[in-house]
Amino acid sequence: MTKNIEHQFSMLVREIRKEFVGNGPKEISTRFVGSWAVSEMKGNLTNIEKFMMGSKEGEKMVHEARTGLVKKIYSDLSVRRKFEDLAGAAILRIFSDIDIEADIAMTIFVFDRPLISKEK
């Protein structure tokens, strides 16, 4: 059951990214670790962003634009509520970054309680 929720969480991340960025990551996986949901995304950059990365200035612009946009997306209360409803917990913090050279992004959602209860 946990894997199903992690998959649903990944699909929600993809849906949100697609809605706000115009495309979602090609690969995404989410793992719940205590009160964290860790989403790793590969294949995030658009062809235009890849073209822009031909210079150091372009790389900096793409990185700043991507990280700034993601922060703005997750500051939207209606977006946060979708994740909270799925997880059944409140979001305390969200950390996000992208390695544009490797085209891998990570977002860590920190919730107010553990997302998986340990089975005994």
Automatic annotation (TrEMBL):
Pfam families: MpsC. It comes from the Bacteria. Residues 3-113 form the Na+-translocating membrane potential-generating system MpsC domain. This is DUF2294 domain-containing protein. It comes from Fictibacillus marinisediminis.
